[in-house]
């Protein structure tokens, strides 16, 4: 049976991640409080951000930028600004 978590992004109970996908304290917070669905949404946005901004994951500053955007999206509901991308309306 899937792990249930109270997803802080969707503000509802939902299936959680199978294992911690991100390291450290933030990774633990995501594992404990973010649903699979919300994290999957983030991964799509992350890919767009990396491509749009030509981020290099070997650069600490680029990783920090992405981490800030990830945290804001998952926990505060802040949509990252991706040029030319309009999020679907609900």
From TrEMBL:
GO terms for biological process: cellular response to oxidative stress. Keywords: Iron. Belongs to the Fe(2+)-trafficking protein family. GO terms for molecular function: iron ion binding. NCBIfam families: PRK05408.1 (NF003817). Could be a mediator in iron transactions between iron acquisition and iron-requiring processes, such as synthesis and/or repair of Fe-S clusters in biosynthetic enzymes. Necessary to maintain high levels of aconitase under oxidative stress. SUPFAM superfamilies: YggX-like. This is Probable Fe(2+)-trafficking protein. One of its GO terms (cellular component) is cytosol. Pfam families: Iron_traffic. It comes from Glaciecola punicea ACAM 611. The keyword Manganese does not apply.
């Amino acid at each position: 049976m899937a792990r249930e978590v109270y997803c802080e992004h969707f503000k509802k109970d939902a299936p959680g991640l199978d294992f911690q996908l991100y390291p450290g304290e933030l990774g633990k917070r995501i594992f404990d409080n973010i649903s699979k669905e919300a994290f999957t949404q983030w991964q799509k946005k992350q890919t767009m951000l990396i491509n749009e901004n030509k981020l290099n994951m070997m650069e600490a500053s680029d990783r920090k930028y992405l981490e800030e955007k990830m945290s804001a999206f998952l926990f505060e509901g802040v949509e990252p600004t991706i040029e030319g991308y309009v999020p679907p309306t609900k």
